[in-house]
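User: Here's a chain of 518 residues. Predict its fold as tokens.
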Amino acid sequence: MSVVKTSDKKSTDLDDVLKKFKICSRYYIECMVLIFLAYMSNSMYSSNFVFVAEEVGYRCKDERFENNSCAALRNSSEVCTEWVYDNPYSFVAEFQLACQEWKRTLVGTVHSFGYMIGLLLVGPLSDRLGRKMVIVMTGVLGGVLGVARSFTSYYWVYILLEFLEAAVGDSCSPMFMLTIEMVPSDKRLLFQMLCSYGYTLGSLTLPLMAWLVPYWRNLLRVIFTPAVFFLFYIFLLDESPRWLLSKGKKDEAIAILEKAAKKNKVKLDRNALDNLSYEENKGVNFIQLLKDTFTSPALLKRFFICLSWWTTSTFVNYGMTINSVSLQGNKYINFALITVVDIPGNLIITYLLIRFKRKVPLIFSFVFAAILCLSQPFVPSNLPWLSILLFMIGKLMSSSYFAITYIFTSELFPTYTRNSMHALCSSLGRVGSIIAPQTPLLMAYWHGLPSLVFGLASLLAGMATLFAPDTADDALPDNVTQAEALGKHNSCKKEISSPTLSKRKEHVITNEKNNSRL
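Assistant: Prediction complete.
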């Protein structure tokens, strides 16, 4: 068994303890399974409207109407009183949405808007109540509201439930924070990328379920009913030790570390655990912590950079996913294909992030995606295979910069506001995913217009990345001072050992045992 040794006078950093647990150890594998399932469910929740509210053909039942197009009927003095739908059991048919295409696409927009509003609530709750508590709450609520949608017969009630499910039923944000905080800094990238395959599996499972369960009400029940198992996460999932330390709950953090050590057959020296160093902000006003973050010019600039990343990532990634079912061929296979490219894509991105840090891979992904999207509309119509190939590679790049954005954003802000800032950037950036469901409507003006818009957005985000610091070599910052120093050589270590911290430190309650270290 390996032992963590330290003297009584020397403080122990949490990363030094976590490094004793290998990623392939029993404890981390068990956690990975739970995280994997949460990501998988989130993936199906966020994209199910593509199949639930899919486009369906229809015509007026009255044979006197020779021209059944909605435009022709709107210009006619007569009114069609009854419609015949290609699929009478579809979402469009049951809610009688003929010639109301905006109501069908509104489902996806409302989901994204609900997610945007919900992140403003879920992020701060996760920072205050803990990652685990919010994961359980959102997981169960999402399932209940999702199943409730399948029973309503009223369109606007369905829209309301769609909004609520997205707002209070998404566990991805707190689960992501737990994922990167439970492992040492040098392993957070690998661990997160492995867990993110749960999201990929969810995106592959969704079209399979939609094919096996074509009736939209039953599809919703199949997807959301398993969410009841999130209740068991109360007993199966541990809280983030890093978050517990930031709240002054040292004993609880030590108990989790000892539990992990027991499962991994690693013996930890009790002195090392007793001397764990941490910064406690238990008594500090949360609004003041956010104010400290935003009054920092460096962090404020990063906030706007992250906002450009998130807006572009959600807009392009969701937009291309939605438009994939409009490509030539089988809609289920097309949806699965653009997901399959994420499997090798994650491996490639993980290698690039390890080899070239964060900044260069992100710029490359944005720029390469822009080139592919801008060129896709100009492919000759007699080469559909080439058009689909460019679309898939472009989707791979958009998924890549979305994945990098997720982890890069989390590394730019301090622990006590990390989930709040991450959620705020993600929330405001959801403006992109709100607009994304409407992009198929642009094809009425020109078939290549959606791809052109995706390309321009990616190019602008790539340019914004030039002004961000690289964080690959730094530990996660615990306070504003450390966050400001990111991107500098050994920045975090220097700031921690520095005898003089910024004035913002007066708002942070520090454990008395660690004053000599600070």
